[in-house]
Amino acid sequence: MMIPIEQWTQEVNALFVANRIQLQRAAYKILGDWERSDDVVQDTYIKIIEMTATQNIKQPLAYMYRIVRNLAIDHYRRTAFESELFGVDEEGMHVPALAGMPEAYVINCQQLERVVQTLAKLPARTQRAFELYRVEGYTHSMIAAELNISISLANNLIHQAINYCRQAMHN
Asked: What is the DSSP string of 92-114?
């Protein structure tokens, strides 16, 4: 039986408001961070409100918890991967700042040029995926949609570009 969209939205809103704190706690158990947990809950709301009543979800609250859990796991994995890939922010805290020195400027320009030359050797799609991710801040799913590819392929293209740039920097 099809529920009118207005009724579906009202039911979801009521469930969401009544259970927001519990949903946030569920995300916090996985993420250990209240701000990111709140982001996950907001993403959950957007995801479930965009669904139509024709999908006939018998237990919307259980479905909300499932979405929160899945999104929190995705956030956790992405954070773990990125911290492994890019290192911890505090690692650079004890390095003296060379930003104002002419030598640092020349070195940074040379490194940037090396990265640009390295990226130019990659296929256009790999370059674009990397640019969308690192320059424009797209998520993997946004990149996949933009390039009309799967999320896993977008992930592979980004990692390929990052690894290629790393190798070039170490040579």
From this structure: GTTSPP-TTSHHHHHHHHHHHHH
